C-alpha cells in the first residue's frame, strides 16, 4: 500500500499502555506467535500456521509492540529493533487482514532505562482569541513540585529559559505541544488547545461501518476521505485525512494487488478554526472482481540494513549496508540492487549524500521485489539530530500534524523533535509528491526449458506528476506491460513530468524447479511429503547435476518412470538429487520442514473410517502412553499404504518437550518410513508414516501410540471449584492414501484427557488480602487495586482452563486489564501476591 503523504506516528501516545488486548479469534487459535530477542535487542517475530510455516493467507499483517505499530507486511514475519523501548514487559500484537488478533508478551533488559519526570505540569487558558483569525489568546504552562529552573519549548518555535512557568498572550487558535526540561535534562511534555468563538461547531467524523472497493483494469484503486465519510465534509472548515493501520496519515490511500482483503482505515477530521479533532473507523474490503491480479499476491516487505552518517553535512560519504530481506524465510538470493539515482551498488554503498531520500529496490532470484527509503544523517546535521531523541519522554496524544525538514509528516511537533530528532518543521502535513512503482511479473520459463522467453511484467505507477516516461535497461523492452521477456534482471527507470525519478530492478524468474523436501511439489515441505517417498521407494532415475538438500530451486531432468496418479514427476521426490528415492530423501524434509516459497493449505477428506485416540483419565505429573487408532471392525481401512496427520493438544496442560509418537507394532507394518515434528507453543504434533514395499495392507485398530506428560503445576481446579480438567486431543489435516495414491476418507474423533488431583495451593480470601476488582461485570477496562499486599503476577484464564495471557511483573498495587476484545462469558483471574494467591471470577458482557 502506498500513500501520497507518509506520517511517522508513535502509537504509545494513542494506545493505552496497559496490559491489554487479550483476545484471540476462532481462526487465531490455529496460528501461533513465535519470537525471540537476541543480545542486540533484535526481535524476530513470526506468525506460524499448523505446519510451522510463516502465515500469508490473510495479509496485510500489522505488528505492534506495546501499542506502537512497527511494521506492516504481506507476510506474517518481521524483524524489529527493540533497543529504543524502555526495559520491562511489552505486549506483542499481530493483526491480520481479517482482523484476527494474535497476542503475546516479552520482557527485555536490553532497552532504555526509563526515568519518570520528577516534576508535573499544569496547563491553562486564560483568554480565547477574540475571533478565529486573531492571535490574542492567553495561556500558561506551570511546573508544580519544582526543584530547579526550567526551559519551555513551544511547538511554534517560542522558547523560554530559566523560568518556573511560561505564560503567553499572543496565541492563535490551535493545538500546541510544549516540552519542559529541567536543569539536569529530564523532560516532561503537555499540550495546550486554544479555541475561538467559531460560529460553526466542529464537524463530527461520521463513517460508513464498512465499504467494498474493487481494483480497476490497472490493478489499482484509491480511497479518499470522501469514500469513508457517510456525510459530506466541509472542506472550508475541516481538514480531512486518512490514517491507515500502520499509522501513516494521508489524503488518499492507494491499493493494488498486494492489498487484497480487509483493512481498517481511520478518518481524521481537524477543525481548521478550533483545531479540535475527531475520528471514526471504516473496515475496507479490497476485491479483484475483474481478476486483473490473476491470483497473484505481491510482496510489500522491506529491507533490513544499517546506515552510517556522512562525515560532514557537505560530504557524500554516508554508507548503507543491506543485511537481509524482511521476509528472509522465503526470499532467496542472490539479491540485485537498484537505487533511485541509477546506482546498482550493493550490498554496501559508500557514497550517499546526507539528508536525501534514496529509494533502494532489491530483487531476489525469484523476481520478488523489496523496497526501502534510505536516508543518512551527518555530523552537524541541521535537520535530524539523533542526540535529541528521548525515548523516556511521552509526548501528548494530540493530532497537530507538522511537516518536518526531512519532508515527512509527523503527528505533532513533540513526536517529530523527541521521537525522531527533527530539528525544524512547519505547521500542517507535507504536500504529496511521492513517485512509487508497484511491479508484478510472471516467470519466463520452467527450469527445464530456460531458453524460452515468455515472461511478462506489469508496472503500476503512482504519485508524482504524469505523464511518465519509462525506460528499460534493455531497449528492446518498451512500456509498462511488456511481454515475451527472457529470464534475467532488468532495470526500469520512470521519470514524471517534473523530473522526479524512481528506478527499480525487474527480475524474470523461472518455474518448475525442484525444491528439496517438497516431494509433492505443493510449495511447502512438511509431513505430507513423506507419502510420495513411500509410494516411490527404491525407484531410480537421472541424478541432478547439483545434488543438494539446501532449500534452493534446482534444475533437474524429468524421470521417465511409470507415473503414479496424483504425483508430480519423480524428480521432485528425489529430494537429495542422487538419482535414488530412499530414506535419505526423508532427511531433506526434516532439514527444510515448514519452509515454503508460497503457501498452500490442506483439508481432510471426510469418510467413514474413524481416526483418533481413546479417552484417558490421568493425574498431574503423569507420563501417559495412549494408542492412536485408525479404523475399527465395522469400518476397516482397505489397501492402506500411508497416512499424514496432525495431533492437536492443549499446551497449557501438557508439558513442553514431552510429546511424541511411536509406531512399533502398527498394523500398517513394522518397517515404516516416518517423520514427526512437534510444535510445543501451538500444541501440535505433525506426523506421517508410510510403507515402502509398494504392497498395500488392510486392517484396523492401533497404528501407533501417543506419549506425553501432564504438567504438575495446573491451577484451574481452584479457579473453577472443580477437582478435574477435561483436556481434548483431536486429529486434523489428515491424508490417508492407498497404494495407488488415492485418498481415503476419515472421521476424526476427539479423545478427552481427564486430569485429576490438581495442585493444591493455599488460596486467600478477598477479606484477607483486600484486593478490589471493578467493574465486575465489565465490558472494557478491569481495575485491580491492592491496598495491603504486593502483586507479583497476574494470570487470566478462560472457562476451559486455557491461559489467555499473563503479566509476570505487574505494578505492585494498581493495574488495569482491557477486556473489551474478549467474548462475552466467564473468565478467571489468578493473582499471586507476597502473602498468597487470590482467585476471582470475572464476567465480560457486551
Class derived from helix and strand content: mainly beta
CATH class of the domain at 606-756: Mainly Beta
Helix content: under 10%
Largest sheet: 8 strands, mixed
Radius of gyration: 30 Å
Number of helices: 6
The CATH architecture category of the domain at 606-756 equals: Sandwich
Mean residue pLDDT: 77
**First-residue to last-residue Cα separation:** 34 Å
Overall number of strands: 59
CATH topology grouping of the domain at 606-756? Immunoglobulin-like
Overall outline: globular
* Strand content bin: 35-45%
User: Low-confidence parts lasting 5 or more residues at pLDDT below 50?
Assistant: 1-29, 294-301, 597-602, 716-721, 758-763
Descriptive notes:
With 846 residues, the chain is mostly beta strands. Among the domains are: 2-108, Immunoglobulin-like; 120-194, Immunoglobulin-like, CATH 2.60.40.10; 210-287, Immunoglobulin-like (Sandwich), CATH 2.60.40; 606-756, Immunoglobulin-like; 766-844, Sandwich (Immunoglobulin-like). 4% of the residues lie in helices and 42% in strands. It is built from six helices and 59 strands. The strands form 16 sheets. Strands 41, 43, 45, 46, 47, 49, 50 and 52 form an eight-stranded mixed β-sheet that branches. The two termini are 34 Å apart. Mean pLDDT is 77; it is low at 1-29, 294-301, 597-602, 716-721 and 758-763.
